[in-house]
Design a protein that fits this description.
It is found in: Cytoplasm. Catalyzes the NADPH-dependent reduction of N-acetyl-5-glutamyl phosphate to yield N-acetyl-L-glutamate 5-semialdehyde. The active site is at 116. The protein has 2 domains: 3-114 and 292-305, NAD(P)-binding Rossmann-like Domain (Rossmann fold), CATH 3.40.50.720; 116-287, 2-Layer Sandwich (Dihydrodipicolinate Reductase, domain 2). The protein has a 7-stranded mixed sheet. It has helices spanning 13-23, 41-50, 60-69, 101-107, 116-130, 152-161, 182-187, 225-236, 250-255, 290-305, and strands spanning 3-8, 28-31, 53-56, 76-79, 91-92, 110-112, 141-147, 171-172, 196-202, 208-215, 242-244, 269-275, 279-286. A hairpin with a 3-residue loop joins β12 and β13. α1 crosses α10 (290-305), α4 packs across α10 and α5 crosses α8. With 313 residues, the chain is of the alpha/beta class. Bound molecules: NADPH dihydro-nicotinamide-adenine-dinucleotide phosphate and N-acetyl-L-glutamyl 5-phosphate. NADPH dihydro-nicotinamide-adenine-dinucleotide phosphate (NDP) binds next to α1, α3, α6 and α10.
């Protein structure tokens, strides 16, 4: 028997991509809402409650509304929005976060999918905290270069239709230093202070690269770049979707720059450590619509249902 799956927000950027992932699967029956009724609360409620798994690909307020509509104990919600990522009762949908995270995702009917910048930041920083290279009191900063699809339908339209010349060059944003991913970055790394975080959106559709610049002298006494690399490699050994590149990856150094788009159309995360004797750059690259959103959501569904984690990805 096929699992019934409903995508609330099926016409949006994340919802469309989830539907692409599900289209080829025989073990899933996708429940579709009549396009005229896609914002009709009664019809959404009916489908949410009929689903074994419902993906919420909606703005935060509509996701909260959808969570209140579910009045049965069977439907598992996987929320792509920011609404529930640090909320009590919701499992964080990042299976690689910690040894017990898959159990949490399997056991919970409420799963919050991580934000795209946050996924990359957390996957880079958490093993460093767990290894004692950073401590909960460490003060860190990070940049994130991202494609414009991260801003959903409205940003895609702005980049593809407005012709505004200022969009031709990269744009640092979130200048109020209060980006919406900061709470989940702290909650799931254990860092007590928010990183100074500067995302930069560029004129390319998708692809994302988070960088943590680190002075080795601010890490655990005597820490070397090898220790950073070893902490990442040890944590992610055997993880099918995470690739820890060799320390000071020779191919990338030969290229002279990192290709932000090289994980596009995959559910993969690539981690890099570049360093000299006193400083390091720890980087995480992903597809913001793959492991940064829709791919991660499908991966969490697979884990929740006890299926092969990579099914359809
Ligand atoms: N794009 C990305 O890379 C990522 C996005 N996310 C998050 O995923 C969620 C969806 O984002 P994204 O797909 O990019 O956004 P989009 O703006 O592309 O799509 C959102 C969809 O939700 C629909 N919608 C809005 N309100 C309602 C409602 N009350 N009932 C039903 N449908 C509604 C919209 O309808 P309409 O078509 O009429 O506008 C639209 O189709 C957001 O919370 C976003 O923050 C998370 C990670 C990455
Ligand atoms: C380019 C761009 O604007 N990107 C979005 C993040 C997209 C994402 O991860 O989204 P949610 O947290 O909304 O789920 C931003 O920085 O706000």
């Amino acid at each position: 028997m096929a699992y019934k799956v409903y995508v609330d927000g099926q016409e949006g950027t994340t919802g469309l991509r989830i539907n692409e992932y599900l289209a080829a699967r025989q073990d899933v029956e996708v429940l579709r809402i009549d396009p005229d009724k896609r914002k009709d609360p009664a019809e959404r409620s009916r489908l949410l409650n009929a689903a074994d798994v419902a993906f919420l690909c909606l703005p935060d307020a509509a996701s909260r509304e959808a969570a209140f509509m579910v009045n049965n104990s069977n439907t598992c919600l996987i929320d792509a929005s920011t609404a529930h990522r640090t909320a009590a009762g919701w499992a964080f949908g990042l299976p690689e976060l910690a040894a017990d995270q898959r159990d949490k995702i399997r056991d919970s009917k409420r799963i919050a999918n991580p934000g795209c910048h946050a996924s990359a930041f957390i996957l880079a920083a958490r093993p460093l905290v767990d290894a004692g290279l950073l401590t909960p009191d460490s003060l860190v900063s990070a940049t994130s270069i991202t494609g414009y699809s991260g801003g959903g339908k409205s940003m895609i339209a702005e980049y593809e239709s407005s012709g505004d010349p200022k969009l031709n060059s990269p744009r640092p944003y979130a200048l109020g230093l209060a980006h919406k991913h900061l709470p989940e970055m702290m909650a799931h790394t254990g860092l007590k202070t928010a990183p100074v975080f500067m995302p930069i959106v560029g004129k390319f559709y998708k692809g994302l690269l988070v960088t943590l610049p680190l002075h080795l002298s601010t890490l655990r006494a005597g820490a070397r770049a090898e220790d950073l690399h070893e902490a990442l490699a040890a944590r992610y050994a055997g993880e099918r979707f995470i690739r820890v590149m060799p320390l000071r990856d020779a191919d990338t150094l030969a290229e002279g720059a990192v290709d932000v788009q090289a994980c596009n159309d995959t559910n993969r995360v690539d981690l890099f450590v570049f360093a000299n004797d006193t400083q390091a750059l720890v980087m995480a690259r992903l597809d913001n619509l793959g492991k940064g959103a829709s791919g991660a959501a499908v991966q969490s569904m697979n884990v929740h249902l006890g299926l092969d984690e990579g099914l359809g990805l």
